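Q: I have 204 residues here and want to know how they pack in 3D. Can you give me a structure?
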Amino acid sequence: MNIPLVLVLILIVVVISNEGFRRVHWREKYLFNPYAISKGRSVAGIFSHFWFHADWQHLLFNMFSLFTLGGVLEEKWVDEYTVVKGDGYFLAVYLFGGVAATLIPYYRHRDNPNYRSLGASGAVSAVVFAAILWEPTMKLSLLFIPIPIPAYWFGPLYLALEYYAMRRGNSNIANDGHISGALFGIFFVALLAPSKLSTFLSYF
């Protein structure tokens, strides 16, 4: 029996994050640091930041979100495209989503030598929004939206709340990274299956 790719990803992230909890100084080398990147130093964080987390709460929340909606998305893509292609697309949206999650934060913080970020939230946001476009009528609810609502309403509301929080600032949450990742997830599905974007928009 094939092990779902989403479980393999979760296992890898948990192992690496746990090692980062134990070796904080080692983890520091792999954080996303826009200022260092703008000066031509330490670009590794663009590709490594989403394998690490700040603490267990941060890790568990991201992995729960990845497991629930990532599991749905992987299953749909495997059914649609076969295991090899479906899992390939799923891995691509996660990995490239994690990289894309640095775009807005880099633009906003490239002159700030004190800014650092880590966590899979941007990569997970890419997966979440890919799932939302693929299955816009499924019901979703997360912490700050406790009542299940259709995904086609959940997505815009989530982005609006993230944008508000980003503009307000004064938090340790990389809302701009969440938005970057989410936009990549939308872009990915729009390229993979343009009709899915059209269907999603038809609900408004």
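Q: Anything worth noting?
A: Residues 56-81 form the longest helix (26 residues). DSSP finds eleven helices and two strands in the chain.
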